[in-house]
Design a protein that fits this description.
The chain is an alpha+beta fold. Helices cover 32% and strands 15% of the residues.
Protein backbone atom coordinates (compact mmCIF):
# COMPACT_ATOMS: atom_id res chain seq x y z
CA UNK A 1 0.00 0.00 0.00
CA UNK A 2 1.50 3.39 -0.96
CA UNK A 3 1.96 6.22 1.49
CA UNK A 4 -0.92 8.69 1.87
CA UNK A 5 0.40 12.13 0.92
CA UNK A 6 -0.73 15.52 2.14
CA UNK A 7 -1.75 18.01 -0.54
CA UNK A 8 1.35 20.17 -1.13
CA UNK A 9 -0.42 23.54 -1.47
CA UNK A 10 -2.70 22.85 1.50
CA UNK A 11 0.15 22.22 3.92
CA UNK A 12 1.66 25.61 2.96
CA UNK A 13 -1.66 27.48 3.08
CA UNK A 14 -3.45 26.24 6.20
CA UNK A 15 -2.32 26.24 9.83
CA UNK A 16 -4.03 24.53 12.74
CA UNK A 17 -4.68 26.84 15.70
CA UNK A 18 -4.25 25.85 19.32
CA UNK A 19 -8.00 25.28 19.66
CA UNK A 20 -8.01 22.96 16.63
CA UNK A 21 -9.52 25.33 14.09
CA UNK A 22 -7.91 25.78 10.67
CA UNK A 23 -6.63 29.25 9.78
CA UNK A 24 -5.37 30.74 6.52
CA UNK A 25 -4.17 34.05 5.09
CA UNK A 26 -6.52 35.90 2.74
CA UNK A 27 -5.76 36.13 -0.98
CA UNK A 28 -5.44 39.18 -3.31
CA UNK A 29 -2.82 41.05 -1.25
CA UNK A 30 0.27 40.41 -3.38
CA UNK A 31 0.11 42.83 -6.35
CA UNK A 32 -2.02 45.46 -8.13
CA UNK A 33 -2.51 47.17 -4.78
CA UNK A 34 -2.85 50.75 -6.05
CA UNK A 35 -6.40 50.21 -7.28
CA UNK A 36 -7.54 48.62 -4.02
CA UNK A 37 -8.85 50.82 -1.24
CA UNK A 38 -7.03 51.20 2.07
CA UNK A 39 -10.00 49.65 3.85
CA UNK A 40 -9.89 46.60 1.58
CA UNK A 41 -6.13 46.11 1.97
CA UNK A 42 -6.39 46.51 5.74
CA UNK A 43 -9.07 43.81 5.94
CA UNK A 44 -6.94 41.48 3.77
CA UNK A 45 -4.12 41.70 6.32
CA UNK A 46 -6.13 39.77 8.88
CA UNK A 47 -6.18 36.01 8.83
CA UNK A 48 -9.39 34.00 8.63
CA UNK A 49 -10.74 30.67 9.75
CA UNK A 50 -12.02 28.02 7.37
CA UNK A 51 -15.81 28.04 7.07
CA UNK A 52 -17.73 25.14 8.58
CA UNK A 53 -19.04 24.14 5.13
CA UNK A 54 -15.50 23.79 3.73
CA UNK A 55 -13.98 22.13 6.79
CA UNK A 56 -14.36 18.47 5.66
CA UNK A 57 -12.71 19.24 2.31
CA UNK A 58 -9.76 21.07 3.88
CA UNK A 59 -9.31 18.33 6.47
CA UNK A 60 -9.19 15.79 3.66
CA UNK A 61 -6.47 17.80 1.88
CA UNK A 62 -4.45 17.92 5.10
CA UNK A 63 -5.16 14.23 5.86
CA UNK A 64 -6.66 14.98 9.26
CA UNK A 65 -9.35 12.31 8.87
Amino acid sequence: MPKVKTHSRAKKTFKITGSGEIAFAKAFKSHLLTKKSKKRKRSLRKGALVNKANLPFVKRLLRLR
